[in-house]
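Reviewer comment 2.1 asked that we show a complete input and output for one of the modelled complexes. We chose the guanosine-5',3'-tetraphosphate case, as it is the one discussed in the main text.
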Amino acid sequence: MSNNLEIEKRRTFGIISHPDAGKTTLTEKLLLFGGAIQSAGAVKNNKIKKTATSDFMEIEKQRGISVATSVMAFNYQNTQINILDTPGHKDFAEDTFRTLTAVDSVILVIDVANGVETQTEKLMEVCRMRKIPVIIFINKLDRYGKESFDLLDELENKLNIKVTPLSWPIGMGEDFKGVYNIHKKNLNLFSPNKTSISTNLYSINNLNDPKLYEIIGEKATKELREEIELIKGVYDEFNHKSYINADVAPVFFGSAINNFGVQELLNTFCEIAPSPKGRDTNLRVIKPSDSKFSGFVFKIHANLDPKHRDRIAFLRIVSGTFKRNTFYNHVRLRKKMKFSNPTSFLAQDKSIIEKAFPGDVIGLYDSGNFKIGDTLNEGENFIFKGIPNFSPEIFMELENLDPMKSKQLEKGINQLMDEGVAQLFIQQPGNRKIIGTVGQLQFEVISYRLEHEYGAKCRFNPKNYFKACWIYSDKNQTIEQFKKSKQKNIALDKDENLVFLAETPFLLRVAEQDYPDISFHKTSEFKLEV
Ligand code: G4P
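Response of the prediction step:
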């Protein structure tokens, strides 16, 4: 098969949601439809308890589990589906942001009763920034929730994206009768069913079809007709190009736990979702059809066994064909590397692969060569853009509790930062280490892992910073002046970029006003553009 056919049949995407909206359940049902698992519960049972914020074993379990379920690949009707898992826990949001750099589209799950929640807004902001096409699945229609039209308004207002419903629910909760597929013009009747994946489909020619009346009754028929009329008046008809350009998000309704609406979602997804897209580099855009292999690392996972320090680097292939035992160029290290046991994530078992294509994610065993964002290619000196660091929200100063173990601490911290567990900022004088994270949980992970994997003990002392802003100016003098006046708040990130640690939004605004020649960035992404 030519590379173009391989590319065409791939769909690499992520499922995102606010915790509890039903991401795990939907993932599991998609795997059931794809035949990748045989029974419900396989993914679910592996999920970390959401309440376990201070249970180390739970954290360890999560790390193990997410290796197994980080990428789930399966074939469905001649389409190769690659689902990239995104942690729902808000403390791991940064992981999710980075994973979004490796997907070509997203399915966003919304709980019908809760509507748009905080985590959803943050995740959608990243999707908008990266222009990732989004399909929305409104879940839990077997329960009472918000009115569908209100929900669509809420989606548009809070997520700042236009929506267009492709299916429409008939009732909800106990009165939930099913969904009318506006796209395919058929009716899928609801029957609660947690185990099988059968559907109850009726095709109807149009909404005046008398069959409709017999199937769902007079009242529901009347309502459905009126609502579909209204939809036609208010929402534009589905336009594939607008979806691909991330200007409009098609919306589906269903109930993941009841396998309801999931197959329509999957079928439509295969039909409309984009095949692997190219990625921008500091030199040019690399297209999937380019003949030479290239890819980037978006995630690194440490080995669960502390005695074995090897890690798995997750590489998204952007172009060409990746081949086992072939030398490639590690651009940052200017080093040739080959891989004897690259793994794929087909179904649930990891197996060694000989070849992989654009859109695929492969696991590379690594003994410390990779950092998140690294580029691997066939000899050219480009690096992929767009794996930014986002400003952390919690900052702590790291204190070494055992001076005899400084070296171990240093090594451990560097390796954990390479994995993207948190961000390190170094402050002078004194080489003070400030660790920044999105959530509290990471500090527990760090001190636990430093102790168990590196034999180093540490303590974290809270710092009162609100944001880390990467700063840039082409006027050296201005930068020097700024550094001098804000010495207490200046640090270097791991790549020695200058960072301003602002204590309050007010002080950040003041700094921006006082130094108009300096640009302040809440992500490190601007670096490659300057
Ligand atoms: P998440 O990954 O987004 O955090 O959500 P998850 O799939 O774990 O679902 C959260 C809860 O919502 C689960 O209940 C799950 O069973 C339930 N759920 C998912 N889809 C539906 C649906 O279509 N209808 C209804 N009524 N519930 C749904 P739980 O009580 O937290 O877990 P469990 O005891 O059911 O495993």
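The longest helix spans residues 218-234. We note this here for comparison with the apo prediction described in Section 3.2.
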